[in-house]
Amino acid sequence: MAEFMELEGQDGVRMAWNVIPGTKQEASNCVVPVSAVYTPIKPFPNMPVLPYAPLRCRNCRSVLNPFSIVDFAAKIWICPFCFQRNHFPPHYASISDENLPAELFPQYTTIEYQSPGEASSIPPVFMFVVDTSIIEEEMAFLKSALSQAIGLLPDNSLVGLITFGTLVHVHELGFGTIPKTYVFKGSKDVSKEQLLEQMNFFLIKPKPPTGVIAGARDGLSSESIARFLLPASDCEFALNSILEELQKDPWPTPVDQRASRCSGTALSIAASLLGACVPGSGARILAFIGGPSTEGPGAIVSKNLSDPIRSHKDLDKDSAPHYHKAVKFYEALAKQLVHQGHVLDLFACALDQVGVAELKVAVEKTGGLVVLAESFGHSVFKDSLRRVFRSEDKDLGLSSNGIFEINCSKDIKVQGILGPCASLEKKGPLCSDTIVGQGSTSAWKMCGLDQATSLCLIFEVVKKEIPDATLHSNIFGSQLYFYSYQHSTAEMRLRVTSLSRRWVAGPGSIQDLIAGFDQEAAAVVMARLVSFKMEIEAEFDPIRWLDKALIHMCSRFGDYQKDSPSSFSLSPRFSIFPQFMFHLRRSQFVQVFNNSPDETAYFRMILNRENVANSVVMIQPSLISYSFQSAPEPALLDVAAIAADRILLLDSYFTIVIFHGSTIAQWRKAGYHNQPEHQAFAQLLQAPRDDADAIINERFPVPRLVICDQHGSQLQLEMSKNSEMFRLQPALSL
């Protein structure tokens, strides 16, 4: 496993198979598809950033890379994908064996280009969309969190504010004399043209011709835009004044009805306003929603409390009357946001469902962040919101306006991507007829992403004949990933990652495939695949699919004698994979029992954007044991790990549990850790807390921290209300 992590540390790529099956049939027999989990902007301390444009192939537009064949005498390089001969430009005249440009160094398989003069003139843009149909206590928590977030904004960033309940209020921050808002009816969808007309955008400049996209460059004056989007340094006082005076929605709510909430209309107005003012800027809509949408487009339930919110059972039976209409609305919103290059971030905080399942398509296609918590006062929400704007060493490294492209050897095609992106519908010979996720294209739009955002690429081997057995070990398949994006410094950059993996085929290929199998990456690919299939295939049985996949894997790569079950054994390269599949079958990605559709959508959205290391923790939680007898060590997820004199640290990604054995709990309650002669006990108590804090500081969304004791009521309470801990009950059995 270490060598695969080393490759990830060099290129940000983990492949399920680090050698490529030689034919389509052999790839099919491998069960786990040829795939890669790629982190486009994973930080590399030693990666060079070149201050010039890349040298591209004139035929296929790939980039000069370490796998290109170079003729130094003739000053020609041959593209490894289309074998086109390309001449070096004059500024490469001094190239030689001893004088290589950085892009030809074998260790620089991942490199970035920074073209001079290509920087965005528009600063970061944040549009806050705030729900006011919540109780006073929640409103106080939300106002406090927003005030802190506004104080963390970059001074030059542009900020806007929309509040909504029964009606949508667009606040004119540039009108400093008195608070001024434009009010829209929540039950009515407002087009961009109607929005601009009603908000008096064309009082100074005439309305542009029909069909022209408005913006600072073509139709709207900068003065008009500055009425609603102001630099944070100029409007911080006005924003804080509005937040201090902000009250819950004044419209009365009958006791037998839900609060009126027009989330869809508010988000549509925010998208149209940003599309008119700052198209293509990488702006972010931060939506803070505290309950289900009951009004206007995007509503997920009626106002009558007698009508329950849709459950998994309702969705399976197709008896959720609002679901498909709401999804269709948010699909249109997602298309609009992707076209504009804008991001939708969702902060959903309520004990009830708020519509994450319907909003999923808009958040995922724009690469937005998502946080789900019980309350706006919960640490999960407050700490996660602070992390979005934190500019310290452990910031998220948010980037925007990305376009991801891929080029492959002729015998490899792309089926699609599972992850936070949207297809640009760039069809070509690289596209497979089989579509998985965002497929039938070789280019994708990524409106927003952070340093941990990872894409799962699914490939198809199209070669049908078996290569010459004497040659197959020397033939390589190549892949080239391009990712152009707007860096957090506003610079436009192009990151290029070049990969080469060996083809294997024939009778001796089994051992080569085993040696190149990354079981962690394979488990993550299977988790994303099964989640995707559960969402699009009506009669799909995930348990049976996973079981059949594991059986076929074991029959192909295991060693056994027929009719002798005790003789079965797996190579160490495969030994943990069945364990991953066992936990995946029981995970919240597959088992929807005790989870709402919102929770299931949330878990799958996080899985679809995280890297391999974090995704593995979601599939199979880690358990670390602390005791006086030994240093902290991993423990099996089994009741045998529990002992009275041990402390256990359970990390299931979304929740972190510090579990004290009964003796440890008694000593702690007696205060022994506060006595000088028991410093060793104090250190034992502190060690898991320090490790938990380190995990919390690096993770987004911030996980819940639960501290409980063996036989304690807190553990019983958490088991009953938390689905993740419920499935781990055998490991933390009372």
UniProtKB/TrEMBL annotation:
Main location: membrane
Domain Gelsolin-like: residue ranges: 631-714
Pfam families according to UniProt: Gelsolin, Sec23_BS, Sec23_helical, Sec23_trunk, zf-Sec23_Sec24
GO BP annotation list: COPII-coated vesicle cargo loading; intracellular protein transport
Subcellular location: Cytoplasmic vesicle, COPII-coated vesicle membrane; Endoplasmic reticulum membrane
Domain Zinc finger Sec23/Sec24-type, first and last residues per copy: 54-92
Residues covered by the Sec23/Sec24 helical domain: 518-616
Entry keywords, A to Z: Cytoplasm, Cytoplasmic vesicle, Endoplasmic reticulum, ER-Golgi transport, Membrane, Metal-binding, Protein transport, Transport, Zinc
All residue ranges annotated as the Sec23/Sec24 trunk domain in the record: 123-389
Record-given protein name: Protein transport protein SEC23
